[in-house]
Design goal:
heterodimer, A: about 190 residues, 3-stranded antiparallel sheet, two-stranded antiparallel sheet, elongated, B: about 575 residues, 6-stranded mixed sheet, about 25% helix
């Protein structure tokens, strides 16, 4: 649909006076900015020599949580796989081992595979999870030599859990019991450098 | 006088209906758990509570108490108000309700509250394990709670958690805590199968479904209790944790494991069949199907299936004692079909050479017709015969009494004839040859060429039909599902398709022709028998079963009505016509 003439406003470039035509005020203005940044704190990050500290609700590599007995917490309900817009989660469910069933665990994931290359890190899976079993961690520097390396199976995802627990970088959503489901944590503020 | 359902008048004629059925006629759905059309009425779930009233002096006087809709027969001039009165058609003029009735609240408010309270009571002890429950997604407790129930629970006491009972059957497991005591399963085993294995033990909040000690739920209709269960209490061990139901694609189909031709739903995902369920058809199977059919789909995905088309190469004369020969060469389908056509044509030019064609009762009518047409056009001297018909015992009739003897009236029959389309193939054979010759007769003779169109889910049937001293004819063409002595000797071997992998028409033991669509795609290298016949006839492109159906309808007067059947759209109901 063409824009009607009544809605079009023509703007003329401002005419330069004698003062502007000297250009010296503009040069001084520019130098002021340069000099101010010379003396302000540095914002440049020396990556990869210095790793940035990411906010705890950053959405990086997934992890599969363990329950209090060290077993995979996932109950293989397929909610994450259903919610996933990229179809990157593949689960094969099976009846839980008999010793688990004493604790009311009837179903467990026999295999749980996430294609980290196909994932778009939207966080829908952890939002859908009814037992807080899948979470996105602050790990962001995911690299591999082959595509197959980046298809994470259950053991790999559980090892991400062990690693993040050890490193003390639990995602903030681990505290979902205390916070609301979609709350921004009070401790987290956008990093400012001023 | 008409019956009024939420102010909408419906004429019910002389039908004897209950409130649920009458409301259905008016387009109003009354939720229910325990009531089932095929079972007796117990009115125990209290989900179908409605308000009823009648005309008195130009006013509608309502009963002060809600009544169960399933147990209340409808009579002339009755007024039914359901809990969904507020969702009625707003253009209808409201009936002149008694002012005293309206004082207590708008019409339907009592029924609505009664239903919400019923749901709250059902959920008192129902665990919130929908994430791990196989029924989630098709669970009536989920659906009705969403539509009629409360969003929160006021229950603060711990729930009853009786232990699961996986021992009640080899095929079925009971998640006791999920049961809402509708007793559909108990009534099914008493009224339809007659075997009465299930019972209710204990009372009140501790009521449980159970079996008698040492008498597990093992009858040929047991699988139906899983379909009947409105919640996830009874689970099929065959389907347990295989798929979430919302991933499944449902297609209408016809069961091929006996000549009843039960109407079924095929639930599949990514071309793998995961579950079969009965589809209501009052003329054929009613609401149910047998376990032989229900669990009889596994052959479709069996590892032993013939997957590729191949040619048996004979040794050349110079290397006649080469131990590698005869050797199977796997060839691309088009090469094989053109070579096959050439061999058949050369046979056809020599009328003294004997050619036999065996059409199995697992073929659809279309396949049998087009194969017969193709082979008769290539080799006009070809003799046609009906493939071996598997028969196991006698027809199995239900319900049965405690001694296992069938009781009248019969409510379900499992046929002894374990093939879906003997009558259809016979009709086609009679059209081409005027008679039906059994395959056993032909297999005893010696032939120059034999075409065996199989599709048998069990190779044992084929083996049993072969005479002990059988030797392969020089040209043997076999299209079958599983390896058998015939497929080993076959000069041309083609993989066949199962009934889920093709479309067509079966004519069941009662002569009812039932058309069904394809549910899953066949194996990569398999093409349907219909496609093979289509290519032998040198017709271009992909075959369409509907076009073949019109063709055979024009040719065979008995099947003329098939020409008028439109191709069934995949998710729609199939058409029925009696032959």
């Amino acid at each position: 649909m063409p824009i009607p003439e009544s809605q079009v406003r023509w703007v003329e470039a401002p005419r330069l006076g004698l003062w502007e035509q000297l250009y010296l005020p503009a040069v001084v203005e520019g130098l002021k900015t340069t000099v101010r940044h010379l003396f302000s704190p540095k914002v440049t990050e020396e990556y990869p020599e210095q790793e940035p500290k990411l906010p705890p609700n950053y959405r990086g590599v997934h992890r599969l949580n363990r329950d209090e007995k060290g077993r995979v917490k996932c109950v293989a309900c397929y909610m994450c796989a259903t919610a996933c817009p990229a179809h990157c989660i593949d689960i094969v469910a099976a009846p839980a081992p008999p010793e688990w069933q004493a604790d009311g665990r009837e179903k467990y994931p026999e295999t749980f595979v996430i294609d980290e290359l196909r994932c778009i890190y939207c966080g829908m899976c952890e939002e859908a999870c009814p037992v807080d079993a899948i979470e996105l961690t602050t790990l962001y520097d995911l690299t591999g030599y082959t595509r197959e390396e980046l298809i994470f199976d259950k053991e790999k995802l559980l090892s991400v859990y062990d690693y993040t627990v050890q490193a003390g970088t639990d995602p903030i959503r681990t505290q979902a019991g205390r916070l609301g489901p979609a709350s921004e944590p009070a401790t987290f503020r956008r990093p400012t450098h001023s | 006088m008409p019956v009024y359902v939420n102010d909408k008048p419906v004429e019910l004629g002389s039908q004897r209906w209950n409130c649920i059925q009458a409301a259905q006629q008016a387009g109003v759905f009354i939720p229910h758990y325990c009531w089932h059309e095929a079972l007796s009425v117990v009115a125990s779930c209290r989900m179908c509570l409605v308000e009823i009233g009648e005309w008195k002096d130009g006013k509608v006087v309502m009963q002060p108490k809600v009544v169960p809709g399933c147990q209340t027969p409808v009579k002339d001039g009755m007024v039914i108000v359901t809990g969904e009165y507020d969702r009625r058609d707003p253009t209808l003029p409201p009936l002149p309700y008694d002012p005293a009735y309206l004082q207590a609240g708008p019409p339907g408010s009592r029924a609505k509250k009664a239903q919400a309270d019923t749901l709250e009571a059902l959920l008192l002890n129902h665990p919130l394990d929908c994430p791990v429950c196989d029924k989630a997604g098709e669970c009536l407790l989920q659906d009705y709670s969403f539509r009629y129930g409360r969003s929160t629970s006021r229950m603060i006491d711990p729930k009853n958690t009786p232990p699961n009972k996986p021992h009640i059957s080899s095929k079925i497991t009971l998640f006791t805590d999920r049961c809402i005591m509708c007793t559909r399963c108990v009534r099914f085993t008493r009224e339809i199968s007659g075997t009465g294995e299930l019972c209710v033990v204990r009372r009140g909040h501790h009521e449980e479904i159970d079996v008698f000690p040492g008498r597990p739920l093992e009858n040929k209709l047991a699988g139906n209790v899983v379909d009947l269960c409105p919640v996830g209490a009874l689970g099929s061990k065959d389907f347990l944790y295989k798929q979430r139901v919302w991933y499944l694609h449902t297609r209408d189909s016809i069961c091929s494991r006996c000549s009843s031709g039960c109407n079924i739903y095929v639930d599949s995902n990514k071309d793998i069949v995961y579950r079969l369920r009965p589809r209501y058809n009052p003329q054929v199977n009613g609401h149910f199907m047998c376990d032989d059919g229900r669990y009889g789909y596994h052959f479709t995905h069996a590892a032993e299936r013939i997957r590729r088309a191949g040619l048996l190469q004979q040794p050349s004369t110079s290397a006649s004692n080469d131990p590698d020969y005869p050797m199977r060469r796997w060839l691309a389908w088009p090469h094989l079909v053109s070579r096959l056509r050439q061999s058949l044509q050369s046979l056809g030019q020599q009328p003294q050479r004997r050619v036999a064609v065996i059409l199995s009762p697992f073929l659809t009518v279309e396949e049998a017709f087009l194969l017969a047409k193709a082979l008769r056009s290539l080799a006009p001297q070809a003799q046609l015969a009906l493939g071996p018909v598997p028969v196991v015992g006698d027809d199995d009739r239900y319900p049965k009494d405690v001694h296992g003897r069938p009781v009248e009236p019969t409510r379900f029959i499992i046929r002894a004839e374990k093939c879906p389309n003997r009558r259809g193939v016979e009709t086609v054979l009679r059209y081409w040859t005027g008679q039906v010759t059994p395959a056993e007769e032909l297999l005893r003779q010696s032939w120059d060429a034999l075409w065996f169109a199989g599709g048998y889910p069990e190779a044992a049937v084929v083996e049993a039909a072969l005479p002990s001293h059988w030797s392969a004819p020089p040209l043997l063409v076999v299209q079958d599902l599983f390896p058998s002595p015939l497929t080993e000797a076959a000069t041309f071997l083609f993989p066949a398709t199962s009934s889920f992998e093709k479309e067509g028409t079966f004519i069941n033991a009662m002569g009812i022709a039932q058309t069904f669509p394809r549910a899953v795609r066949p194996l990569i290298d398999a093409r349907s028998e219909l496609q093979l016949a289509h290519e032998l006839l040198e017709r271009p492109g992909l075959v369409q079963a509907a076009a073949v159906r019109r063709e055979l309808g024009r040719a065979i007067p008995e099947l003329a009505h098939l020409a008028t059947i439109d191709p069934p759209a995949a998710p729609e109901r199939i058409e029925l016509a009696t032959v």
